[in-house]
Amino acid sequence: MKKNPHTVTFTINGELKTFLTEPDEKLLALLRREGYQGAKYGCGQGTCGSCTVLMDGRAVYSCLLYAMQAEGREIRTIESIGTHDQPSEFQQELIAGGAVQCGYCIPGMIMSATALMENETTFDDETVREYMDGNLCRCTGYEKIWTALRRVLDRQEAAGKKK
Amino acid sequence: MTNPAAHFKQVNHSVTKVDAKQLALGKNSYVGDFVPSDALIVKMLWSPHPHARIKAIDVSKAEKMPGVKAVLWHGNVPRNIHCTAGQGFPEPSPYDTFIFDTKVRFVGDRVAAVAAETAEQAEAALARIHVEYELLPPVFSIDEAMADGAPVIHDEPEAHVPIPIPYEPKKNLVARVGCEAGDFEQGMKDADFTFDDTYETPYAQHCPIEPYTSLAHIDSAGRIIITTSTQVPFHCRRIVAQALGIPVQKIRVIKPRIGGGFGSKQEILLEDIVALFALRTGRPVFWQFTREENFRTGRTRHPIRVRLRTGVKKDGTITAIGMDCWNNTGAYGGHGLTVVSCCGSKVLPLYRCDNIHFLGLVYYTNLPVGGAYRGFGATQAFFAMESTIDKMAEAIGMDPLEFRRKNHIKTGEGSPVFAALGEGKEGTPMTVGSCALGECIEKGAAAIGWQNRTDWRTKTGRYRRGIGMACLMQGSSIPHIDMGGASIKINEDGSFNLLVGATDLGTGSDTVLAQIAAEELATTTDKMIVYSSDTDMTPFDVGAYASSTTYLSGEAARKAAADAKRQILKTGAEMLNLPVDQVVCQDAHVQTPDGSQKVSYGDIACYALYQKNQYQIIGTGSHITEKSPPPFAAHYAEIEVDTWTGLIKVLKYVSTIDCGTAINPALCEGQTEGGTLNGISYALTEQYLFQNGRMTNASFADYHIFSMRDKPPIQAILVPSYEDTGPFGAKSVSEICINGPAPVFANALYNATGARLYEFPFTPERVLKAIQAVKR
Questions:
Q1: Per-residue three-class SS string for B607-646
Q2: Looking at domain B482-623, which of 3.30.365.10, 3.90.10.10, 3.10.350.10, 3.80.10.10 is its CATH number?
Q3: Does A134 touch chain B (CB under 8 A)?
Q4: Which stretches of chain A score pLDDT less than 70?
Q5: Could you give the 3-state DSSP secondary structure of residue B320?
Q6: pLDDT of residue B137 exceeding 70
Q7: Which of A111, A137, B32, B361 has a Cα-to-Cα distance from B719 of 20 to 30 A?
């Protein structure tokens, strides 16, 4: 097979890396090929959100972006959030609240929530819905995901006000 | 009455889901996360025609395309007729499918497949396959399918049904089932009011966020290893063996974590292809449906026409219920009979009535294929039944809540329908054991504010609010057909490997079964290492369907744990030098009842494995059920209707459920909330739109499923009962909740505006037309 000489260089979870790619390769395909498999294929059309990653702090659909569009950018994936010993606050609430059913949408949900928490300081329901609207879940009815997220946000808001 | 669940330490507690952390961390878990870098990628050429014969097909150019390793089509694969539905064996469904056939029967049917180094190469090769079709007249509705001289969709001579049930493919008839009790005609005559209404329910797709996905490779011993997103690993192994004409022994099916199924993955749609390609090429082979393929070729909810004829006396006695169902099963017949049977068997017993008529007819059409979908026929028939119940109540001037309370089945009561309708054979007579429907009705009414409900004639203005309700039942497993197995062995530290054939597809059944085993063993759930569904490693289980896992496989897990417990007690007593009848299991120890002498499970395991009279402490259990105890539910909603646009806004939804003992209350609530929202989305927005048999809205952009923004507040209320025949009092929870929203909204819309709809989704256009037709 003929090898294409194209490369793309970006920061992935804090590490600057260069990857071989093809002009028509999607960012999701590159990430999954390189072992960042927390981002999932769900629709390939930017409608379900299971492929959500952060690009320069914004939640984006990695199934819609070409890998080359990440050139020089900072990409963050679910692999940068939490560990078995120390899950993130939102992950802990999701786990404790029974909010993870099949779990396929959860990494994307967490990335959208991360963008929300990092970009906003107040979290009224409408703002939260705006950030989370692009992540579909078919299992949970969103009730327990919403409750878990609200708990984290309410704590953050309270902590912010104290400052 | 004392609460038998009060002393439980593991079950009836919201224990953390065993796989929650790995999934929340995004660790490799699903089929697509285990694809080797040298895997070939599959792409399928799908039929663009609803009904055509393949006159000629030339794959030679495709075979020579770069990266292509193999092409499969009807000329180079085994021709073994089979059924793709994963059901009991022999199936109550027709054998009407080949890996590839010389005929295509719907837009999205298989024509030829390519395996190539990359997806792009496979796609490019598909474009080089030349197919010559002879177009045949298509059949797009039940009426066309039933008509004299209708085009015959399954004219292949091999088509047959493997059990003795009616099947007439020359007439497009997939199945016919019926039952009679009492005298229906007389019951209609005895009524003060009679009703004769016809309801229609639409196509829908399950929309798991993980599409259908399968991976196969040949191991060093030459066996085919299939890792697949399936609800039915054991049925998958059997069906792939059947389709390929090879022994079951040659195949291993592994189910990793599954990204949702809801019934869609109770079907073998990819596994035969990846297995064949792996055999032909010796390479790992991966196939994942695109979202569009998931809609077009994936299984769907059967659209069903329900004619309901009922009679009621002024005093509220229901004198007759007659239900005729016409089930459009699409191009293939899997689940056609059983879904239509459940229209009767899961719905008719809910209300006391001596005179019952039921007829279910199933027809082929050249449309997408119906399959199993959460609710399984009950969803369709409850829309009709619960709409008509409201109409009956209004006719006799009774509050619909009171009318339901007066007539619903109660503990100790039976129904002739239980005995008459089974799955491809007669059913099992039974009386209802646990039933907390009365309490569900009360608690739900209080939560929605039923007492504030007013007649629609009093309402004016642009925005009008209405409150609606529905009562529901389902079943728990298929008696004398479904079987679940489990085994459990102890490790040196007192942990246990619990191996179950039951298939956790995101439902949390691994956790629930671990809780049940831990409760029986008097240890804690965190000591359980659960491994589910691997045909080489775990005992058999029919799989995740028919609301069976907690009730059926849960009892298998409990029996296996009880078996291990006997061995633990024996060895513990031996270590303590006491007779076995003087020790008990408590807090992961074998001890005297006063606790003065005790030995831990870890020490017992070490003793049994290393020290004296060594043996493996291992318990096994399998279970079949004698009955299918129904869970019950009462659903309520308050809606606001914009009478200028027809838009329905759901202000609040209340889902009560009696699932017996909630083994894991948080997960039971999650099932209820999730199923309810799926039902809400189905009732309000979901439908297949067609042009000449081709679905025109095969994407989430055009087929809307509810998002976090769309979600109304849903309140799940678990109402405990105790089912004596289930593990620690449990029965099923997963399916029932999806049945409520369509009839609840139909009734709420009537209560708001006086408009009654007999068809959904309740789109603004449809609602507006109905409101405009109301005569005040």
A1: HHHHHCCCCCCEEEEEECCCCCCCCEEEEEEEEEEECCCC
A2: 3.30.365.10
A3: yes
A4: 1-4, 163
A5: strand
A6: yes
A7: A137
CB B735 within 8 A of CB B378: yes
Round the average pLDDT of chain B to a whole number and report it.
97
* Residue whose structure tokens are 């039921």: B358
B478/B341 Cα distance (integer angstroms): 12
Does B66 lie at the interface with A, CB-CB under 8 angstroms?
yes
Asked if domains A7-80 and A89-162 share a fold, the reply is no
Instruction: Measure in Å the smallest separation between the Cα of B91 and chain A Cα atoms.
Output: 28
Share of chain B above pLDDT 70, in %: 100
Which tokens is B734 given? 């997963």
Cα–Cα distance measured from residue B53 to residue B72, given in angstroms and rounded to the nearest whole number: 18
- Look at domain A7-80 and name its CATH class: alpha beta
The ipTM estimated for the assembled molecules is 0.97
Q: Do B25 and A133 touch (CB under 8 A)?
A: no
Topology of domain B300-478+627-772, per CATH? Answer: Aldehyde Oxidoreductase; domain 4 (3.30.365)
Return the pLDDT at A43: 98
Q: What is the pTM of this model?
A: 0.97
CA distance A116 to chain B (A): 15
For residue A50, give the chain B residue with the closest CA. Answer: B209
Domain boundaries along the sequence of chain B:
35-136+216-288, 300-478+627-772, 482-623
B29 at interface of A, judged by CB pairs closer than 8 A: yes
Determine the topology of domain A89-162 in CATH: DNA polymerase; domain 1 (1.10.150)
Q: Where are the alpha helices (DSSP H) in chain A?
A: 27-33, 89-96, 106-119, 125-132, 143-162
Interatomic CA distance for residues B504 and B734, integer angstroms = 12
What mean pLDDT is predicted for residues B515-522? 98
Residue B34: closest C-alpha in chain A: A37
State residue A160's pLDDT score: 85
Task: Return d(Cα B81, Cα B568) in angstroms, integer.
Answer: 49
C-alpha span between A140 and B711 (Å, rounded): 11
CB B111 within 8 A of CB B274: no
3-state secondary structure labels for all residues of B18-79: CCHHHHHCCCCCEHHHHCCCCCEEEEEEECCCCCEEEEEEECHHHHCCCCEEEEEECCCCCC
Q: Looking at beta carbons, which residues of chain B come within 8 Å of A111?
A: none
B38 interfaces chain A, CB cutoff of 8 Å: no
Residue B420 tokens, joined: 């008459």
Phi-psi region of B500 (alpha: psi -120 to 50; beta: other; left: phi over 0): beta
Distance to chain A for B21, nearest Cα, Å: 6
Query: What is the pLDDT at residue B433?
Result: 95
Q: How far is A94 from chain B (nearest CA, A)?
A: 8
Residue reference for tokens 């679940």: B484
Nearest by CB to A95, from B16, B26, B673: name it. Answer: B16
Q: What is the pLDDT of residue A1?
A: 47
Quick one: pLDDT band at residue B368, thresholds 50, 70, 90?
very high
**Boundaries of every domain in chain A:** 7-80, 89-162
- Please identify among residues 506-565 of chain B the ones whose CB lies closer than 8 Å to any CB of chain A: 506-508
- Chain B nearest-CA residue for A104: B259
Closest CA to B253 of B217, B289, B282, B222: B217
A38 at B interface, C-beta within 8 A: yes
> Residue B201: how many CB atoms within 10 A of its CB?
26
* Span B73-103, pLDDT tens digits: 999 999 999 999 999 999 999 999 999 999 9
Residue range B523-527: mean pLDDT, rounded? 98
Residue A10 token pair: 């970006």
Q: Does A144 contact chain B (CB < 8 Å)?
A: yes
